[in-house]
Write a structure and sequence with these properties.
With 155 residues, the protein is mainly beta. It is 3% helix and 47% strand. Strands 1, 2, 3, 4, 5, 6, 7, 8, 9, 10 and 11 form an 11-stranded parallel sheet that branches. The relative contact order is 0.12. About 6% of the residues have low confidence.
């Protein structure tokens, strides 16, 4: 006799993952809203797909596709396959495709394969076309980035 389905142990599913501490989904879109500010030393935000930034980030951002909205800003390195800037970036931008829209304000160097700068965009920095695609490829492997927990720092 088989037990009823509710009696069989199973791994809880959270957002398509076996564990809330497992790897993030590679589908969908994430958003950092206008009411959100993320601060931290040596912080890196990693998005496996599209990330819309309308708030403020003080740290590095890696993703497949990153859009920095008109109200958004990043102070740190932004690295992705495709980056659109409508807001502000103070730091390096590394991507295959970079688009600076008329409302963008960028202070830092841009490393790219393809670059478009719209009339009205403010840019202060150097531009360099990457000779090798590997030098601008975003690192989306969470395990490759150093991690320090609050317990490690307190102990």
């Amino acid at each position: 006799m088989t037990p009823p389905p509710s009696a069989t142990p199973s791994t809880p599913q959270t957002n398509g993952r076996a564990s809330p501490f497992g790897a993030a989904s590679t589908m969908g879109q994430s958003m950092i809203g206008t009411d959100l500010t993320i601060l931290g030393e040596k912080i890196t935000i990693i998005s496996q797909n599209k990330l819309q930034i309308d708030g403020d980030i003080r740290g590095d951002v890696h993703g497949k596709q990153i859009v920095i909205g008109e109200d958004g800003s990043v102070v740190g390195t932004v690295c992705a396959e495709q980056i659109e800037v409508r807001g502000g970036v103070r730091g390096a931008i590394k991507a295959q495709t970079v688009m600076l829209h008329p409302t963008s304000v960028v202070e830092g160097d841009i490393f790219h394969q393809s670059l478009s700068i719209a009339e009205g965009a403010q840019f202060d920095g150097r531009v360099r076309r990457a000779k090798d695609a590997a030098e601008i490829k975003p690192n989306l492997d969470v395990n490759a980035h150093p991690f320090t927990s609050a317990q490690d720092e307190a102990g």
